Each structure stands twice: as structure tokens, then as C-alpha cells.
Amino acid sequence: MKMKVLSALLCFFIFIGPLTACSFQQEDSETIRLAEVTRSIFYAPLYVAMEEGFFEEENLNIELTTTWGGDKTMTSLLSDGSDVALVGAETSIYVNSQEPAEPIINFAMLTQSDGTFLMARNETAETFDWENLKGSTFLGQRKGGMPQMAGEFVLKKNNIDPHRDLDLIQNIDFANIANAYASGTGDYVQLFEPQATMFEQKGLGHIVASFGEESGAVPYTVFMAKEGYLEEKGDTLESFTRAIYKAQQWIYESSPEEIAAALTPYFDDTSEEIIADSAVRYRDQESYATSPVLTEEAWDNLQDIMEEAGELPERSDYEKFVDNQWAEKVMNE
């Protein structure tokens, strides 16, 4: 996210209407308007909490809107178009560095690693070596976003300079990256699930590495809200966090078939087999957070990755911008 975009974002807000929304309603329940940055199997615990009734048990009604992009998600949150945002923790660092009227506070973690995989067009996991990327065309993610920063961090870790050793393409909109690769662009691509598994099954390439396993623990996707909302709605956020924690436990205890059944309503165009395979791939590498607590170690690792990418505006105070009180409380019950 460019700083000039953030400056404009903080000066002028537009309301982002729901492009994709799922909700359940319960009489006399508390409603939370939740904006998710994209629709992804990477966010499976959220959909589990909705589908398995964990929010309903907490007397909560979730109005879920997919805002398709970090800038749009934060615009929705800052302009009161939503109460809570599910988005990369780096967006809170970008926005808070601009000193908004109300700070953005991270209060519960959903995913704890990068969710992208490296797909190779002409080699398999058995033949893959990071050195093979040198001189290739690499279809990367949007500059300044967490997928791109984690991707570059991993490339450098494997002695690849992404701006010297590759023909790096990163000017394609997030929603069109998979289509660009499918149409023949790039030797390698960085993809989320289920696109990676779907493309592998279609013979478009092979998943050869996991950026999540390579980059380590980071607060990759986090629930956040404005400081005033946290102060006013503490009991509501405690209930919300409890439902998320139940879902995090459920997904690590359930069968692939049970997980697929819970997620299918949110992915109409994806088979249950692919949903199950994708979710289990994330679970096996522990991409889904096992608790909603956002640790200081993970927060510092996130900022180290941002700094390495040249995108960190300034170090962000963990004690000031992370509030684990509800996450710690529900875990200790």
C-alpha cells in the first residue's frame, strides 16, 4: 500500500458496499459488520464459526462483506462502513503511521503464516530447486502487500535477489494474477488456495514450495477495529473472539470431509474435494492460528519482513496497537 494512497484514504472515505455477503440473523442478537479483505479457504476458521453456529451460541449476528483489497477494507473500517476488519496486520501499521483520528487495534489473530504457495509451470516438487528461479519470469503479488513482502523475504533467504535475478511481474491486480498465469504468463507464480490445488489438478503446474513454511510465524491475517469500538463494545468482542477460538479448535480436530462440508456454502464454484485438500494443506503447515493471541515475537517478525522489503514506515509499538485481553481471557476459560 503506497503512502500517498493511505494519505488520500485518511482524508476521503467512500462507502464500500457488499460485493459478497453471508450472514445469519437471530432475534435480539448483537450485529457485527465484518469486512474481509478477500474470500479464501485461508480464512476457513471464520466460515466455520459462522456455519457451525459458534457466533450464534454467543448471540452474535455477523454481516460479512468481501471488500476485495486491503485499501478498500481499511476504507470501510475507517469510514464506519464496517465494525471489524479481517485483513493483513501490515495494513494497521501503514494506517497507524499516518496518525488517524482513532488508532486501529489488532485484537485477534486468524492466520499465523503466509498463505501462498509457489507453483512451477515446468517442474515438480521432486525436481525443484530455488536456484532454478534465477533467470525465470516470476508472477508475484502486489507491491506493499504481505504476500509480496513475504515472497521477497523467502526469495532472499534462498539467495535470490527478486529485482536482479528474476523478471519480476507485480503490476497485475490481485484478482487477476491466477488468470494471468493460467493464460500463460510466467514460469512461476505465487498463489493462494484453492487456486493452487485447482491449477495443479488441471495440469497447469505443480506446487513446489510453501511461502508460509519458509517465512515463519507472522500475524498474517488479523481481526482489527478502531480503538473507540473496542472501548465501547468490549463484551461483544469477547464473544466474537470466543467464537473464533472455538472454530480454531474445531478445524484442528475435524476430518477433511467435515471441514469441506462447513466451507462449501462459501465456495460455490469449488468442489468439496478441492476445498478439503486446500484446507488440510493449510492445516498441516499450521497456517491457521491455533489461538487468537497475537504474540510480540510474531509482530516483530512481521515488521522485520516489512523492513526487509523497504515497506515499513516506522516500527509499530506492540503494546499500543495489539490488545490480547479478549484472546487471553477466552483461552483461559
From TrEMBL:
Its main location: periplasm. Keywords: Signal. It comes from the Bacteria. It is found in: Periplasm. Residues 1-21 form the signal peptide. The keyword RNA-binding does not apply. GO terms for cellular component: periplasmic space. PANTHER family: ALIPHATIC SULFONATES-BINDING PROTEIN-RELATED (PTHR30024), TAURINE-BINDING PERIPLASMIC PROTEIN (PTHR30024:SF47). Belongs to the bacterial solute-binding protein SsuA/TauA family. This is NitT/TauT family transport system substrate-binding protein. It comes from Alteribacillus bidgolensis. The lineage of its organism: Bacteria, Bacillati, Bacillota, Bacilli, Bacillales.
